[in-house]
Write a structure and sequence with these properties.
By secondary structure, the protein is an alpha+beta fold. The protein contains eleven helices and nine strands. Helices cover 41% and strands 21% of the residues. A hairpin with a 5-residue loop joins β8 and β9. α5 packs across α11, α6 packs across α11 and α9 runs antiparallel to α10.
Length: 320
């Protein structure tokens, strides 16, 4: 790496900076005073930041290749309590620096191959062959992409291998909860956890950097309906009973709980109910930890959009 710039997590309002970042997306927009500008998102392995390049247009835009590293010179401002970068100039990084792009991608903190192995270990714990075969067949079709797929475009786990990380942490939660409460069917719970978001591979299209966009099918149907279709197809292929297919479809269809969030039905049995809460716990834990990772103890984060724009506090406690 020839060029060392400031990391996004270290940016502070008022500073003029030089950095090297991945361009996630860029769009030409028109400002309220009728001038065109470029609106973009820049990222590195420490976070992402919205950026504006004022009084620019097609000439600059045509050189902005998404998912490439750029040298960026700009001024950090605070707008509506959120940091934003006003670009002075930027240009694509040269080939030598471009080769280091994976070091600039936010990734899950564990090796994907090791996490995939853990998912298969939980799959092996599913005693019912009917349920296990559906899960195995669905994993089999997706495992190449599951290795690097993010769990979202911009919300929780929108990092390389984020979907796998989400599934693994949920499986551990599911196992722990099933030891606290009697009578939980772990076959259904583990299967539900593994397949609930698998159709995000298809709802989103991601590159190997884990940067995602919605597909046409994703925008028109979403991962819940796509998941139901996939369970139906895979269930028939593996010869599962109608009851098993129905139960798994219900878990996927109800996992967002509210119609406003994409679930046409609320959970109707306990494993479906638990799946929703385990999903929420994992998403929330991620959002809290992400919000406070670069915040000093005793202070608050920027407002977090996915947590109703709350500012999250990092407690200041003495080491014990
Ligand atoms: Fe989901
Ligand atoms: Fe999820």
């Amino acid at each position: 790496m020839r060029f060392e710039g400031i990391k996004i997590s270290e940016l502070k309002a008022g500073e003029t900076i030089n950095g090297i970042y991945i361009l996630k997306n860029a769009e030409i927009k028109v400002s309220s005073n009728k001038k065109t500008y470029i609106d973009m998102t820049l990222s590195d392995n420490t976070g992402e930041i919205p950026a504006k390049w004022w009084d620019t247009g097609e000439d600059q835009y045509k050189n902005l290749v998404p998912n490439k590293l750029f040298y960026v010179n700009g001024r950090v401002d605070s707008w509506r309590d959120t940091l934003q970068l006003n670009i002075v100039k930027m240009r694509i990084a040269d080939e030598e620096d471009q080769r280091c792009i994976t070091e600039f991608v936010q990734s899950a903190p564990r090796q994907p191959e090791e996490m995939l192995e853990e998912v298969y270990a939980y799959t092996a714990k599913i005693k019912s062959p009917e349920i296990r075969n559906i899960v195995m067949a669905m994993l089999d079709k997706k495992e190449d992409k599951l290795i690097y797929w993010p769990a979202a475009k911009s919300l929780h786990h929108s990092i390389r291998s984020g979907l796998l990380y989400h599934i693994v942490r949920m499986l551990r939660s599911a196992e722990a909860i099933s030891k606290v409460y009697e009578g939980i069917n772990t076959d259904l719970l583990f299967a539900g956890v593994i397949i609930h978001d698998l159709s995000k591979i298809g709802e989103l299209d991601a590159n190997e950097l884990g940067i995602a966009e919605y597909t046409k099918e994703g925008q028109l149907l979403g991962h819940i309906i796509m998941g139901v279709e996939e369970i139906d197809r895979t269930g028939r292929e593996t010869g599962a009973s109608d009851e098993v297919i129905l139960l798994l479809k219900h878990m996927v269809i109800s996992h967002h709980y509210e119609a406003d969030y994409g679930s046409p039905k609320k959970p109707a049995f306990i494993e479906a109910e638990l799946l929703h809460h385990i999903d929420m716990i994992d998403a929330r834990v991620y959002d809290y930890q992400n919000a406070t990772k670069s915040v000093e103890a005793g202070s608050f984060s920027e407002p977090v959009w996915s947590l109703d724009r709350r500012c999250i506090y990092k407690p200041m406690l003495k080491e014990t």
